[in-house]
């Protein structure tokens, strides 16, 4: 013979259950912890991406500035300059870094032509890195007036988050800098340098 609980006993048990606050903190933590962990990783991944983007901006400015400071450049100098760019990117892997430096000369009619171009890594095409002798139309006259020249440095970086929790796909950052030569009217390419 089984005993049944009286309705009064059931009501007393339910009141006791609802008033019991032991374990509430553990339950609240179990509900909030996943959201907090996701937020933490999201902030960390976003911060890392922003730092990589800032390094890319520094690289683009630095490689263009180094070239613009000299009246001449060549393959050996450009290899050293691109190595500097790879060092600036550290501790991020330099495998996703692509750099390009080129000189654009404008004639008396305002036609902009690429005088020389050097991409890195060599032989790998980079979006926005034109061929030698190509006509460039995307530079405004405020940046490049007639009978002048500029150095254009471009860089892209494929950033992949180490945890891929919030940013599972690869993001591509792009930067362009336009610099006027400092010590001469144009920076010339010399194959022996």
Describe the structure using short key phrases.
single chain, 193 residues, alpha+beta, 4-stranded antiparallel beta sheet, two-stranded parallel sheet, 38% helix, 22% strand, rod-shaped
In short:
The protein contains 3 helices and 6 strands, in the order H-H-E-H-E-E-E-E-E. It is an alpha+beta fold and 193 residues long.
Describe the overall structure.
The model has no long low-confidence stretch (mean pLDDT 89). The protein has a four-stranded antiparallel sheet, with helices on one face. It has one domain. It contains three helices and six strands; from the N terminus they run ααβαβββββ. The chain is of the alpha+beta class. It is rod-shaped, with a radius of gyration of 30 Å. The longest helix is centred in the N-terminal third of the chain and has 45 residues, at 24-68. Helix 2 (24-68) packs antiparallel against helix 3 (75-89).
């Amino acid at each position: 013979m089984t005993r049944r609980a009286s309705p009064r006993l059931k009501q007393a048990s339910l009141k006791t259950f609802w008033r019991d606050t032991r374990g509430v903190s553990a339950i609240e933590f179990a509900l909030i912890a996943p959201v907090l962990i996701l937020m933490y990783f999201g902030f960390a991944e976003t911060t890392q991406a922003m730092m990589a983007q800032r390094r890319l901006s520094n690289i683009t400015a630095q490689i263009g500035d180094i070239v613009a400071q000299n009246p001449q450049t060549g393959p050996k100098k450009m290899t050293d300059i691109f190595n500097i760019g790879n060092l600036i990117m550290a501790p991020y892997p330099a495998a996703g870094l692509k750099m390009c430096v080129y000189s654009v000369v404008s004639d008396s009619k305002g036609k902009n032509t690429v005088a020389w171009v050097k991409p890195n890594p060599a032989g790998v095409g980079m979006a926005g890195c034109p061929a030698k002798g190509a006509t460039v139309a995307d530079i405004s006259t405020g940046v490049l007036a007639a009978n002048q020249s500029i150095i254009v440095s471009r860089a892209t970086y494929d950033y992949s988050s180490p945890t891929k929790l919030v940013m599972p796909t690869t993001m591509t950052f792009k930067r362009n800098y336009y610099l006027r030569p400092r010590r001469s009217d144009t920076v010339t390419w010399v194959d022996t340098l």
